[in-house]
Amino acid sequence: MGGTTDSNPTGQARTVNRWILLLWCLTAVRLATGTEDGMTETDKDSLDVQILGPGYVTVGVPSSFECEANCNSKPCIYSMSMDKQASAGQGNVLAFTLTQWVEALSLTCTAKDEQTRATKTVTKKLQVLAGPSNVSISGPDLMTPLASHGYTCHSYCRPSCEYTWRVDDGPWVAGQGNVIGVIPKHLDTAKTLMCRATNTVSGLFAAKIQDIAVSCKAGSPAMKQCLYPLNETGLVPPQ
User: Fold this and answer.
1) What is the CA 132 to chain-centroid distance, rounded?
2) Which of 14, 24, 128, 141 has the fewest CB atoms in 10 Å of its CB?
3) Main-chain dihedrals φ then ψ at residue 202, nearest 5 degrees
4) Do 143 and 167 sit in the same domain of this protein?
5) Per-residue DSSP letters for the chain?
6) Per the confidence metrics, is the pTM higher than 0.70?
7) According to the 3-state scheme, what is the secondary structure of 171-215?
């Protein structure tokens, strides 16, 4: 009787299954730890970069912005630029003072995680404000008692300013725009006008104070009212 070979199909199947299981485990570990370059899609997605600071800058006012990222390696490596002009040596903080008005400004920050080699760049667009500055009050140089006089407040302001007024020691009054009407009393010798211009975005404000003399001016339409005080029935001539 010739020799026979005893085969074990069950053992062979178990060996193949073990190899398949091992390959599956190796693949899963590789996907979990990263690709060959050490960076995974999870690393890219988890790298959150932000530029911290207000959404505007004001001409002539110092500004500061900070870049922040959640790198696994601390600290991150940062590169910041303003309108694509690199600002080296400042790390993740960019401080500057804008000297002239421009339509818009862009800040860019690139953060790199050395551990995962993940890199991400973000851009922040800023509104450029100006003023208020050069606040002035225009109107008559002399007031007549009991007559109405109009005064206008001017200022250089971008995008716009709100105006509030104060006469002498009275309260600040809003809602009249940049124009106010003033009627001096009979015994007033001077009026003090104060105009405050406030930037509608930044809240920065500047004020102008102006003293206006009050006197009976010859030829004024209110000359009689100026010379003689009023009572309930009209003019009261001197005794």
Assistant:
1) 15
2) 141
3) -85, -25
4) yes
5) --------HHHHHHHHHHHHHHHHHHHHHHHHH--TTS--HHHHHH--EEEES-SEEETTS-EEEEEEE--SSSSPEEEEEETTEE-TT-TTEEEE---S--SEEEEEEEEE-TTT--EEEEEEEEEEEEEEEEEEEES-SEE-TTS-EEEEEEEEEES-EEEEEEETTS--B-SSTTEEEE---TT-SEEEEEEEEEETTT--EEEEEEEEEE---TT-TTHHHHHS-EETTEE----
6) no
7) CCECCCCCEEEECCCCCCCEEEEEEEEEECCCCCEEEEEEEEEEC
Greatest CA span in the chain, whole angstroms? 162
222: amino acid identity, one letter: A
Asked if residue 154 and residue 84 are part of one domain, the reply reads: no
* Domain containing residue 102: CATH number: 2.60.40.10
Q: Which residues of the chain have pLDDT under 50?
A: 1-7, 16, 25-43, 89, 230-239
- pLDDT tens, 35-77? 333 333 334 557 899 999 999 999 999 999 999 999 887 778 9
Residue 107 belongs to what domain range?
44-130
